[in-house]
Amino acid sequence: MPFFLSSKSTITYVIWIILLSETLTGLATSQWSLAAIAFVTFLLTLLPVFFGDRFAVKLPVSFVTMIVIFIFATIFLGEASNFYEQYWWWDLLLHGGSAIGFGLLSFLFVFMLFEGNRYSAPPIAIAFITFSCAIAFGVIWEILEYAADQILGLNMQKTGLNDTMWDLIVNCIGASLAGWAGFFYLKGKELGGLTGLIDDFISLNKKFFLKLGKAAKSKNKDPD
What we know:
Largest sheet: none
Number of helices: 11
Strand content: under 5%
Helix content: over 70%
Number of domains: 2
Shape: globular
């Protein structure tokens, strides 16, 4: 399983060891909820690896690591370790991170539809689509939180309207960062950071962006 072997970092290994250890500890001490949350979290962290194999998409190690960290922080640390209650900023941090992540995925998906042609649409237009998609994911999540509170009697919205509004504000900030990263990448200003992540993904999956090099050559040959 070549992709599986090449898509792990030291941080990913450490998180897997923690989750499996907590699963065994929970079973040994009859803490069934702890064991269940830890094991489910472990299974979810495997999803990017299997996704890559299933759809022949090569995810950079940095992508896989960040996804694993996000799932670990959201489910295990947030719920099992009660970080949401201990740290008021934990929820906002994760919402901002998810907005950036969904924004980058949105940009890559849109850019993939254009087969990597930088000149098929104005960069600001693609950046706006990226921003809008990331915001849409954030809004859908808030609706799910509301539905879970109303139907299942949970308390995912915490303080209600204030929690929802701050989540949306942070989503806007994260979505904006992803949108601008896409904009600068399309303008040929690869500044590292988020633009570096975009470049890493495209470099590993050139078959989805066949027009990237061709469009640049065509523009250079154009006498106008």
